[in-house]
User: Fold these one by one.
Assistant:
Number 1:
Amino acid sequence: MKDDKKPARRSQAWFGRDDRDGFVYRSWMKNQGHPHDLFDGRPIIGICNTWSELTPCNAHFRELADWVKRGVWEAGGFPLEFPVMSLGETQLRPTAMLFRNLASMDVEESIRGNPIDGVVLMMGCDKTTPSLMMGAASVDLPTIGLSGGPMLTGRFRGQKLGSGTGVWRMSEEVRAGTMTMEEFVEAESCMHRSKGHCMTMGTASSMACMVESLGMALPGNAAIPAVDARRFTLAQLTGRRIVDMVREDLRMSRILRREAFVNAIRTNAAIGGSTNAVIHLLALAGRIGVDLKLEDWDKLGSHLPCIVDLQPSGESLMEDFFYAGGLPVVLRELGEQGLLERDALTVNGHSVWDNVREAQCYDREVIRPWNQPLRAEAGIAVLRGNLAPDGAVIKPSAATPELLRHRGRAVVFENIEHFHERINDEVLDVDETCVLVLKNCGPRGYPGMAEVGNMPLPPKLLRKGVRDMVRISDARMSGTAYGTVVLHTAPEAAAGGPLALVRDGDMISLDVPARSVTLEISDEEMAARRAAWQPPTPPRRGWARLYVDHVLQANRGADLDFLVGGSGSEVARDSH
Ligand code: FES
């Protein structure tokens, strides 16, 4: 089996053996019809596929994988597709985020345990991107990302209708009595009319942009619509490229350096990206050994403008972004402002600047010039204060500017059930100056850190025309959502953070320019309330129990404590 002209491949520890084990490794694979010469030491490429009909955003991935395989074959590799846990954001209960780390373990062990030399990560729906990136990072083989692409623009009665963002807006209109249920149901078919992931700049699109700005995917990966023929072309080129990456031994750790994360954070500001990217990139950095802190988001990105006019911050959608030139244009703008780590290496072997320096913009309404931004300061602001000693985040570009400095009376919900019980109650003592506080929706509290931070407003205020209020929680928020919403408060209520101690009627002051969020009670009162606080009962068994026992707080990416870092690609050999 040995061919001395070829370098030893990792997969040859399985297929290059001349003994009984080699027979076993090869023979069972041959039941799929693979001829003997495929085991001769050519790069074996694992195609890590999150296809699932229960993950509608990734339901086209078997077809897409075939295009990857074409490229792998063309370049002289041997593609082998394998499934991993697929997290469908809209279907999975209690929240897909509860399973991000579980899926990452599936990815990590599936890669490490199998005869694979390089990996293509097929990612789309929100959590399928970070879970695959995190798991692969802990193995650190040559790896390339391929996103499934966004859906085509939703359209309803002549208007653009964006994933998620349109739901939040229309559901408030139904509650306010300005939209009928019939219209609401009709809009369901109009919003999602093609294969692909959410086409707003929600979490899926933001994470696809993160993958590209990190240098982990070929240029153009983030924005090509799922059904555009160029998505298939990109898949084929991705398949070709991973074979060469194996030959070059271009591993994730050579790409995911600190400068890559700096580029990603700045990109997230410039695109008006999701707050969820904060948590996912912190977790990914932890896996690959890059020292990234919550404050880095503020230091590196909060003063940058948003130049991409996409919902939820703006009006357009991912299809428009693609036609305008896509992410390479944004990266070029960053580079021209001295805000891009130009030498950061990418999967194609070129620097990020080499990839984007010639990028052209074809629609300046969608990708604005740097000096005519959509929002002047758009990145993630990190807040501190006695209500969030370990930090909280807010996306100022999605907030009401007048509310970024606000003092109001707390209306407190102990958990999401308590919120649902009270929010529609006409006698709820609340007005538009109040601050809605939601507890026990953090990593441990929910558990899984649900996307409920953008709490719906009380109907009686909606009827008055109120469309935004200050809201504070330890939850996350859908990347498609908007509002003056303080998220990821750490430590969370279920971990005994000060959020747990807020009571109805307390005064809270938010000062985003000063980066503070303050509960206006004395230290003595805080201590007295803390002494009386009782931790919630943890889940009794199963994954939820393991998760609650080990999950880190949001400011550390909500990874499990024992998953931080990696174990590399070495694996003990079994014997048949
Ligand atoms: Fe899958 Fe939005 S629900 S990307």
Note: The chain has three domains: 42-151+202-356, 154-191, 383-536.
Number 2:
Amino acid sequence: MDTEKLSSKIAMNEIVNVNTPDFDIDPEKCLGVYDTDPCTIVIMGATGDLTVRKLIPALFNLYLNKGLPKRLQIVGCGRTELDDQQFRKKMENALMALDGKNRSKWLLFKDTIHYFSVDYDNLDSFIDLAEFLKNLDQKHKTQGNRIFYLALPPSLYQTVAQTIGQTGLAHENVNNNGWARIVIEKPFGRDLKTAVHLDQGLRKFFQEHQIFRIDHYLAKETVQNILMFRFANAIFEPIWNRRYIDHITITATETLGVEHRAGYYEQAGVIRDMFQNHMMQLLALTAMEPTSRFEANQVRDEKIKIFRSLRPFPVENLHDYLILGQYGAGTIDGNPVPAYRDEPNVNAKSLTPTFATMKAFIDNWRWQNVPFVLTSGKRLAQKRTEIAIQFKEVPHSIFRQTLGEAIVANRLILGIYPEEKVTLTFQTKQPGAKVCLRPVTMNFYYNQNYSGPILDAYEKVLIDCMLGDQTLFWRQDSVERSWAFLTPVLEECEDCHNREEMLHIYDAGSWGSNFSNIK
Ligand code: BG6
């Protein structure tokens, strides 16, 4: 076909295809009527914040969108003495304004919710719970399948896993049990040693395929989109490497301060709170090799290779690779906010970092010497989560004589928050007689041409637990590698004599500490 015919064909196609995409999407398939087994979700810590704010609303939403198995029971467990009615009322209040249709649905849904009071370290109370669950199974035909969701402080994870285990509830397919899964949220330890210790405690009773370690970042649609974007498009992968990419920045900044979590945050700081988990997952998804199939263990096998390839942090040269900061007083959205040290329950001389920028390298063929610059912090100018791929400049500019300046290199941004989007910046000619370049940005907004429901992170997590799909959960080997990379950094920062000097105080509402010594 000659080029003229070819271009007229393309032009025709463009006309014909306006507003009529030539690809088929089966909405049912994408929204998912999930093929989940009947089961009981047992929430430990059911009177706490997480249950009220996240878990029950997520379960109710799934119910409204027909995302739950037909035979599902929910059992809230806690130390407080409550009966079913009192617990249901508490949950109903948490759902806030239930209008007409939702209210009538709630009246149907609430009967699936029960309450059983337990003492977390008392075997007898768990033996009673086991009996209660057995009866519930028989009555509602939930086939002995159970999810134990630990909505509890991490200090209780081992104790509760142990009492569940000693009662025989962790055994699968024996004594009227079906499958048994345990769900925990970070922090998975506070360094390598404690992470290993926690795992040893869990593994006495649960095997790896039964343990679901949540990272809510992985349940974000746009984070999952990273793999689709990279591996369902042939055009990006060939340039996704050191030959074309100059550096990659991964940013997760927040305007929120420490809020009411000083007790936890004072012990954690930004590296444990954001880097060991969310930032490392974003890094792995951006850098990993394609798998043969999109399947939990294959994806996790590729991620662990990235964690294993992280160049050990040059702790002797920390200043060139890491900046730590802590917010001082400032202004957010026009309102004055206190310094971190003046927040309730924070030590007035606290040296806990609320901000960090870190430069990391991955020692493999694809990424040799490409800096990955990770930044996260609280009380910054804007809440923004994004991955920016900065490509290299053109090898030689034919316009240099006319323009007399370097050409701004291409940049691809995978936006996660506030705008869920993909943008590509490239150069075009500025219209007019003169030779001038004009950088333009091509935008794709994630919800463009889509009006269906979007799964909240906790809805996604709960569905995957019910399906037994561990793709979006941490596997212990990765938890350990991530800690192995960060523990020496934490030790160096926390034990060094100049800890105070290392900490830059920045104004709340600003863009944080000075990045000048890091690319
Ligand atoms: C949590 C951290 O894991 O993630 C919080 O403990 C942080 O400190 C939060 O605020 C950020 O999550 P998101 O989804 O708002 O970016």
Note: The pocket of 6-O-phosphono-beta-D-glucopyranose is lined by residues 252, 254, 256, 273, 385 (CB under 6 Å).
